[in-house]
């Protein structure tokens, strides 16, 4: 009887382990991601490695986001990776024009897409957003990633090191998805610049 119970317990443990392994292998890369499907809403636009978001010319302070997207090894530039970014205006509102469709009704029209070439580089011209009105969320720029043959997933927002709302407690809760996301913009050629290299899969659940 003891042998039977032992074998039964062993069988249950093995089955549970196999089930967990299967779930991990088939789980969605990055886990739940509300609104990540917006990365596909660029329509018939031909994506390039450089994009300029709406209201860049007339809004200060201007901001340049640039860097290289690397594969999981952190060394090899990743080609054909789409980045989707969106953020608030200078009043902290996801500004809309009134004719938005899809996720633009939530994300607003200050958004854009880039697609890396063989060198893995991307550049986005925009402006520094404001924090949400009457809330304590730091200023941030959302980023979603879509690499070939994997589902889309989000990485850590672009955050600003000099933002007083980015407290030590909030910094401690950052996951480092895709690598470091906190930067102090540096003036280069008359425009504030953040240079951020992104590592695909870094700290991303179910990445395999």
UniProtKB/TrEMBL annotation:
<dbReference type="Pfam" id="PF00775">
    <property type="entry name" value="Dioxygenase_C"/>
</dbReference>
<dbReference type="GO" id="GO:0008199">
    <property type="term" value="F:ferric iron binding"/>
</dbReference>
<protein>
    <submittedName>
        <fullName>Intradiol ring-cleavage dioxygenase</fullName>
    </submittedName>
</protein>
<keyword id="KW-0223">Dioxygenase</keyword>
<keyword id="KW-0560">Oxidoreductase</keyword>
<comment type="similarity">
    <text>Belongs to the intradiol ring-cleavage dioxygenase family.</text>
</comment>
<dbReference type="InterPro" id="IPR000627">
    <property type="entry name" value="Intradiol_dOase_C"/>
</dbReference>
<dbReference type="GO" id="GO:0016702">
    <property type="term" value="F:oxidoreductase activity, acting on single donors with incorporation of molecular oxygen, incorporation of two atoms of oxygen"/>
</dbReference>
<dbReference type="InterPro" id="IPR050770">
    <property type="entry name" value="Intradiol_RC_Dioxygenase"/>
</dbReference>
<dbReference type="InterPro" id="IPR015889">
    <property type="entry name" value="Intradiol_dOase_core"/>
</dbReference>
<feature type="domain" description="Intradiol ring-cleavage dioxygenases">
    <location>
        <begin position="62"/>
        <end position="169"/>
    </location>
</feature>
